[in-house]
Amino acid sequence: MAIVAAASLALTSCGLGEPDSLSAEDREEAETGVAEAAAAIKDAAEPVSQWPTVPKIADPLSLKGKKFYFVPIGESVPAIRSIGVGVTDALEQMGAEVRTCDGKFNPTEVATCLKAAADQDVDGIISYSIEYAQLRNTFDSVAKTGVPLLVSMGGKPGDFAKADNMAFFDTSPRLKKIYTTLADVAVSQEGAGTHALWLKVTDNATTVANLDAAAERFKERCPSCTLTEVEFGSATLDKLPSAVSAALVANPDINVVVQPVDGYVPQTLTGVNAAGFGKKVKVVSALGDLDGLKRVQSGQQAGDVGSAVTYDAWQVANAFVRLLNGEQPETYDSPVRVFTKENTKDLELTSAAYGTPTWYGDDSFKKQFLEAWGAR
Question: CA–CA separation, 255 vs 262, rounded Å?
């Protein structure tokens, strides 16, 4: 999620039609793509067997007595709040003190948090899920104070005010992997006869780009499938149910609904039920929130794709440690997992479990990070 921007609701459709109308070559391509999608999600349904290797920093680093600020776009989203908890845990194990200032999904609040942190003469600031372009002047102003500043959202812009103490941590690879896997999950629901309603949240450029990449993955996997897009934003969330309902009524062949944000599934289901499609469509979503997995476990939802927020948090901390050590943060690979009714039946679906990597694997990655940072 990122700062709420003006958003619109729009509807577009694309696809190559029914399987029977395809050439033999296109039909074969569709069958191959569907099989590849099924194989991919079968692998992703298993727990992580081995976490990616963490390269060591050039020089061992001590953070004892250091004071840092974590400034997220908004803690009301479980994943973002858990990222903050994980970052705090990681840096505290290095001897640092971490405070959090909640941006409350308000640009003014975020800017106030960043400026207040810099004014307190802290040893570093981590912003999370806030694009540089959205608060360019504030980021540049904070960077001029000399405080190390990590901007973790999207990639490095081409026109930023260069400063040795400001670095960018690109979270796009994680999001792209989640959403392209979600595309595979969608295709696998009804195979070559999948007709998907693709709900596209437009709050920020990073999310849009990764959802576009996932939509392309969907079409590449299955040229016989169709995809109907509805664009929406957090600012127009109240209009989402009616937009979903209208899209389903206008496209009665739709049999799969793809919602990229778990937290917006309730509004999506309201629209689905209002259109009378409650028993006609399968709903899949992403981000692996607790409520999403509960819906999957109960059969209310067909699938969910997520990544371990604890691991992702330690990756953010890793990027920050490298900035403090005079290194450039590295893009990382975040393993994702596909959740189904079958593999969630034995999971402990609690708030406490959500804040751990238990749904994905063990916590051995923590030792890897600490050793890479030179912690004793």
Answer: 19
